[in-house]
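Q: What changes when flavin mononucleotide is included in the input?
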Amino acid sequence: MTSSRRQMKLGLSIASAGYHYSAWRLPGVAALSGMDINHHIQGAAIAERGKMDFVFMADWASVMNVTDTRIALDKEHAQVKLDPVLACAALAAVTTHVGLVPTASTTYNHPYNFARRMASIDHISNGRLGWNMVTSTNIDEAMNFGLDGPIDSDTRHARAAEFVAVLRGLWDSWDDDAFLRDKASGQYFDRGKFHWLNHEGAHFKVRGPLDTARPPQGWLPIITAGASVNAQELAAREADICYGGQPSLDMARRYYASVKGRLAKHGRDAGDLLMMPGIMAYIGRTQQEAQDKFDAIQDVMNTDVGIGQLILNHFPDLTGYPLDEPVPELMMRTDNLGSARLAGREPEMTIALMNRAREEKLTLRQLFDVAMCGFWSLGVIGTPASIADMMEEWFTTEAADGFMVQPPYMPGAADDFVDLVIPELQRRGLHRTEYTATTLRGHLGLRRPAGRGVAA
Ligand SMILES: Cc1cc2nc3c(=O)[nH]c(=O)nc-3n(C[C@H](O)[C@H](O)[C@H](O)COP(=O)(O)O)c2cc1C
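A: The predicted holo structure follows.
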């Protein structure tokens, strides 16, 4: 049954054992998760059961923050993982409807190899592959590719725009009907139906054609994220989905308007780009049950893990402070956040939490609670109805066209979302009850681009 009513787009982000840094310590969560393809297969099956649009895998080609001994890396589970592109290739063979969206960098990949790899998986999945395009701002990653630090934002984004143009040009190398495979005449393909790319730009020189037939989707749907003007411009120009991290309705609406407000100058309409903020949900049939699930995971979080995560978000080092006493006001001063601003990140969330900690005299434990639920994205502890209410409000007030579900622990929190929240969204007509398309573009309601280029 297809609803003509606007419906939410839903992605499930599989991040190792879950988005909470101590998820791996929970009973029922496999500590091996990030390195186990069966864990990813289980996650994809959950998403497919919920008729979700796609599964998503974030990525950084590095062990993160490895040089900062204040960060309790050795107690967190997400430091080693499978390469998401390869994991999606494996998932393509064992799933039928759900879209597959791995993350990969435009700074640390070459567009010819990448076009070939992704086109291959789109064929293997019969048109269900997408791509989360990142330009890579992480120093640990840069040091794995011969650099001492990330490339500046302007260069990163210019390279990304050229990278996308080369990809699409290569994906258009062969017309959809180029291959005759005519055994009688012996004609395998029509020479007039492949196209040279002959791209020569500031970052790449690529002749083409690609040695993989045109992807079933033509071009793969692109997701991207980022708060800076460069990142928003790249999204408005090239992306089909913009993935955001906003913990409040107000921030999400401002971001929604800011990104969508840039579409017209690129000849695009508001419906051409879907805004999908992240949501991290602790779900119970009752409010108390949901709260108990949150408390259970906070109880297994080592204090130094919490302190390390606060440091990563520009808080001072709070090692040694008592857990259940208010954090000293002196430590919650926002005027020493210059370094965060220098790093190009407007520490809006850090400032908001520091102000709140001072005003409400939050204890260190309470700071951890806020940081672990709703710091970098919408965090909720609630029942199916209260969570659906909040999602519906964002969806109907230009804050979101859908959501990236970030389960704090896997598979439990993903199961809860699919078995408890999705039926509530379906009851309200806000989410599909059956898949009606076979490709990711179809799920997202995106037109398949026609091939282009000149005959050889
Ligand atoms: C919700 C969200 C998810 C992100 N996921 C990734 C990721 O998986 N890998 C990555 O390298 N960067 C990721 N980023 C970082 C962005 O791609 C971008 O580089 C960063 O936000 C800095 O943006 P800027 O270049 O506009 O300053 C993510 C950002 C956001 C907001």
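Observations recorded in class: The longest helix spans residues 153-171.
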